């Protein structure tokens, strides 16, 4: 088992954090106590926040988290006061297709297995708080209280942190008069819970409470929205979230401190770690590397248009992670043939990288392209990416952090130091835009779509939003991660397509509208052979959790 060279307390000390600032969970993970952030920063110099994103994912893998950790370790090796700010993994992907979410090789968080599984219990607390509200809603239906909830218009699902397609649509309350009111119901995965989104955007405990109170759980028979505050269990939900609201601290194998907190997916939610963790990292470090889920069109856009706007964050640079193998797939090569050298296929795949670089430029931010190098990559294939970046005037570096840790990413870290400068983000979703205007801006300026089309359910939902005065909230698009379009089969850089939005759902507590595009679902299913089949406990050690 690979272990960090230093203890967690030694890693924390490099950021000025001592035992009094931490609530330990064993000797390798801890919760950050809020008192430390009340003290002044160690320096008047503004910290540099770097967003790590990527090209459109493929089955070949890109290694965004691995690259974030490798770059952080490289900056640490170069003497920079560095911290990582990352999301917590969900059990769904761990046991489904993706596997773990703590990096790979020598660019990995520690303790990896703990972080991938139960960690400090944050996901379980969010699940419990969410389902407490769901149970209280059904209790109001059962007793017919003065909320006069319409059982046909309850919009608050239940959640669990596992992929389970059988729970997407169901009927609850069967069994007779003593077992509740029969109604159509559903489950989302915990990463899609509005409680998760709220926890990740809340500024402090008071803001967390206020946001939870604003959650719309359903509508009365007269059509009036019913909120969590009216349901009456917000205080109990806050009690369940007491510890979960505080960031977790671990470290990488290279000894870089890492604030790991919150875990919304970027294809069905806003895809960023908590604002509290990012701010904590920026308070104690000079360089903070964070990531947003999937490619720049999903996580990157939401980081810059939602999280950065809520938190007033400036961004020093965007790192776009690419791989030779993924570019080959965007160039038409199938997964089984990726081992064959094919510089021409890499070149055919470059339009996908180009689209994402174009989008970064829309936000007015400097970009660095980092190739997460695979052992089978040839110099000729890497040269294709380097030449393209040089022609665009975008810095490029190939990195071997998976095999070599921070030492393999030092060139990329030096390039990053050359371009990074705290910059005010130019949002694509400008304040005051309507939902339709926001959708059009995202689709045309970030995805490269020609137009947006609202389906019947989305049009009806839009009319409801307009009546409630909620049609100018930011938009969080839920769509496939496998394409810039809403069709997962369209790799590369699709042109002239229509983004079809089939429904709009208000997350009043989180403060945004979720737009469901294409066939995206908020409860994933397991593949034919789940990753869980290969996971085991042998002599007290977890094996097979990659």
What is the number of beta strands? 25
Number of helices: 18
Instruction: State the CATH architecture of the largest domain.
Output: 3-Layer(aba) Sandwich
Question: Fraction of residues in helices?
Answer: 25-40%
CATH topology of the largest domain: Rossmann fold
> Main beta sheet, described?
12 strands, mixed
C-alpha termini separation: 13 Å
Structural class: alpha/beta
User: Would you tell me the overall average pLDDT?
Assistant: 95
CATH superfamily of the largest domain: P-loop containing nucleotide triphosphate hydrolases
Low-confidence stretches: none
CATH class of the largest domain: Alpha Beta
Tally of individual domains: 3
Shape, principal axes of CA atoms: globular
Q: What portion of residues belong to β-strands?
A: 15-25%
Radius of gyration, rounded? 23 Å
